[in-house]
Amino acid sequence: xxxxxxxxxxxxxxxxxxxxxxxxxxxxxxxxxxxxxxxxxxxxxxxxxxxxxxxxxxxxxxxxxxxxxxxxxxxxxxxxxxxxxxxxxxxxxxxxxxxxxxxxxxxxxxxxxxxxxxxxxxxxxxxxxxxxxxxxxxxxxxxxxxxxxxxxxxxxxxxxxxxxxxxxxxxxxxxxxxxxxxxxxxxxxxxxxxxxxxxxxxxxxxxxxxxxxxxxxxxxxxxxxxxxxxxxxxxxxxxxxxxxxxxxxxxxxxxxxxxxxxxxxxxxxxxxxxxxxxxxxxxxxxxxxxxxxxxxxxxxxxxxxxxxxxxxxxxxxxxxxxxxxxxxxxxxxxxxxxxxxxxxxxxxxxxxxxxxxxxxxxxxxxxxxxxxxxxxxxxxxxxxxxxxxxxxxxxxxxxxxxxxxxxxxxxxxxxxxxxxxxxxxxxxxxxxxxxxxxxxxxxxxxxxxxxxxxxxxxxxxxxxxxxxxxxxxxxxxxxxxxxxxxxxxxxxxxxxxxxxxxxxxxxxxxxxxxxxxxxxxxxxxxxxxxxxxxxxxxxxxxxxxxxxxxxxxxxxxxxxxxxxxxxxxxxxxxxxxxxxxxxxxxxxxxxxxxxxxxxxxxxxxxxxxxxxxxxxxxxxxxxxxxxxxxxxxxxxxxxxxxxxxxxxxxxxxxxxxxxxxxxxxx
Length: 666
Prior knowledge:
It is built from 21 helices and 20 strands. By secondary structure, the protein is α+β, with helices and mostly antiparallel strands. The protein has a domain at about 525-645: Thrombin, subunit H (Beta Barrel). The strands form 5 sheets. A 7-stranded mixed sheet has the order 5-4-3-6-12-8-13, sandwiched between helices. Strands 15-16-17-20-19-18 form a 6-stranded antiparallel beta barrel. Helix 3 (about 100-110) packs parallel to helix 4 and helix 17 (about 445-470) runs antiparallel to helix 19 (about 480-510). The chain starts with 11 loop residues before the first strand and ends in a 27-residue tail after the last helix. About 45% of the residues are buried.
């Protein structure tokens, strides 16, 4: 525990960990020594120039792993402090081309934040319908004459129109909780605190490519390890960084570094580094206080990772603010930033080398060892156990947020993005493509072709090695030691299994229907005015799916939903129906919802439904959100009546089709 002092009034408590976490790291380093010696004696050959670079790559990987374990040995969480009184807080929602439905829901959520003064919609698309939306719901609309410096320029433009002491920034698809200020403002009793960052969690987990189901937790996604392990660990070194959304910042701190960093594709981490270099402090609060939309297809997922990677590598190699040279950072802060920015280099170059490693074995081993038995025995007794130990140690230090299978699948999915992101080493990336949220893309991206080609090449390598054994090809190509073939085949097949499982998952995901309504209540009773009773299967601003005891007799239904905030009464058109497992499943389409109804629905979605799904997975939990979510809840009631159109698409995206028919081929 880090006890509060008058100078630093925030108390941090350490997340409980098993007793063996502390000795596990030195044990791992100790066991690495014989492995390194073995690699030097066995693998480096004066006959093959690439054995030395290969050894350097492996040592870089080992060093990166050790650094990660050192930095994540202890996880610190801040103890809540009552909010400061009589302080001004404004909320900002930057947007560019996102649909009005998404912007409206976020803006309504921001207006419901207790204690917020103004809500600004920063529209870099200068769209009349967003201006009308802001006026209708009571937000302040701001638009620039140009789009200079993209998102960072837009956020700085918003700051010019506010004199609030503290500012909240949420992406236009991240709906904040009403308790956002209540849960975060108290930490600013520390006069040197620049910002409080909260985790980015996503409510479209049924429709996002980056979520996977695991038996030991509710929801796991590709960023789980970052927000539940890496960021809390950074609290120990005052190195938690701003992630662009879901944060509250001190205005005077931002002004001291000239606002948000421009001339970069990753203004969030760049701004954080400048603040830390100036002596400001930061806090990561592991409590979900905003819920957003994750990329729903591989194309947008890939584009997002390219942007993050190119921006991070540009910061590391092409700017005067590089953590390699930036003055003002502590040694530990420097290491934390190096670990975060170098991850994209590791994910690209290093992982490609590992995938190519079986072929390198085939080419290099004949010059290294001629004693099959001694080499094989040393490999099985030293190299393979150390490989397994590395996985086990990483898993244990991650507090089970690292998953050996799914994490590796996403690492492979990110290879091409990390390789493309290497352009950030050559030139700072100032422009980037904005992710399209809530729109399932049908065409296969380049990244998909890359994975299929990779699987084909690895499969061909396996076929060659099998043929070598069965057909005796050594007679025509020269002898290759059997241990070389054995190890190359083992590792190539091991890697191929990950690639094929990823390709299979992506294909299955692409065929999965995009659900119409994103929110899935648990045990929410619903009654119709005509007497039918049942419960909600799913609901959104556009409509709902109900499982009732009988079909309504009319084409219009008036439903009442019981929530902990009181009943919500809405009318809708019966636009679909089917009988399923003895239940009458009905789709309602809402029209002309009042602003009051949208406020109540937003309160219901993000104050009751969504928090239940994430309650078990974060260190800080609200007491009323204890329901365990079951990933295996059947989608049959939703799919049976043809709900296959994208989540909350705007009318402009319909290409002339109605809301209920477009993209039906999904």
